[in-house]
Amino acid sequence: MLQNKANPTINKSTGLPRKRFYRARAHSNPLSDSHFPVPLSPNHVEYSLHYPQLFPLADRTDTCKKIGFADIGCGFGGLLISLSILFPETLMIGMELRDKVTEYVKERILGLRVANPGQYQNVSVVRTNSMKYIPNYFEKGQLLKMFFLFPDPHFKEKNHRRRVISPHLLDEYAYVLQVGGIIYTITDVEELGEWMKSCLQNHPMFEPLSVAELEADPVVKLLSTATEEGQKVARNGGQTFQAVYRRITPAS
To answer: Computed over its alpha carbons, how large is the radius of gyration of the chain?
Structure first.
């Protein structure tokens, strides 16, 4: 507690980081070169660093337990925190390019672990460029769910290649998702919503969830409520556009 009093970035009453000290630009250029460590392969991901209580040894021996959820461009971690409670047995990770935002999520998770012993041990975050390094983190058919919530719309046509949902990137996502795995997308930009839906609809390895499946999936309800962006849209009375698709085996 004395440490928290001396540290203005930490809220003294909650022990959690204060968001205003970690503000950054809303988006970063995913095509620029950033400098951060990247594992050589999924076998080199340091599980003991991300989930120390579950993997206390630097040598990961439990090869059956692997990351199941990936939140791409996780922002301030609202969805991850909600998912951690909803799926306590599933390992999950947020992938964020902005360094200050990544640091905030790290501190937030650490604070929640201290305040809630035994909880939030299954969630972590890493600073990386998911448009370049997805195969470095996940094996073929490893992931159960991938999330793309309120991504950068890159309005100019010349910048559409920077969009995190695109035909060629969906090939990578299909590779790391297991058959039956689900991609969740949401945006408040109608044109981007149509773009993401069209990319998924036209890809041979994805099919949309039915209305009944969407209504029964508890995760769908979090898409518009768990994140700072979603809450801002709701406060302003804005509209959102979702596309939720399942990884399938293409027809031969």
So the answer is: 18
How many other β-carbons are positioned within 10 Å of the β-carbon of residue 128? 23
In a domain, residue 38? The reply is no
The number of domains in the chain is: 1
Range of the domain at 116: 63-247
Residue among 152, 171, 188, 217 flagged as catalytic: 152
Spatial CB neighbours of 201, under 8 Å, sequence gap ≥ 6: 208, 245
Q: 186: closest CA among 140, 142, 232?
A: 232
The reported pLDDT for the residue numbered 83 is 98
Domain-embedded: residue 25: no
Known catalytic residue: 33? no
What parts of the chain have a pLDDT lower than 70? 1-34, 58-64, 252
Q: Give the CATH number of the domain where residue 221 resides.
A: 3.40.50.150
Chain Cα centroid distance, residue 222: 13
| Predicted pLDDT of residue 149 | 97
Within the chain, residue ranges assigned H as helices are 2-6, 47-50, 78-86, 99-115, 130-137, 167-176, 190-201, 211-216, 218-222, 228-235
> What pLDDT, on the 0 to 100 scale, is given for residue 158?
85
- Predicted local distance difference test score (pLDDT) of residue 23: 52
Annotated binding residues, written as ranges, equal 73, 96-97, 129-130, 149, 227-229
Known binding-site positions for S-adenosyl-L-methionine: 73, 96-97, 129-130, 149, 227-229
How confident is the model at residue 4, as a pLDDT?
A: 47
Phi/psi of residue 199, each to 5°? Answer: -60, -45
> Is residue 136 in some structural domain?
yes
Per 3-state DSSP, what percentage of the chain is helix, strand, and coil (rounded to 5)? 40, 20, 45
Structural domain includes residue 166: yes
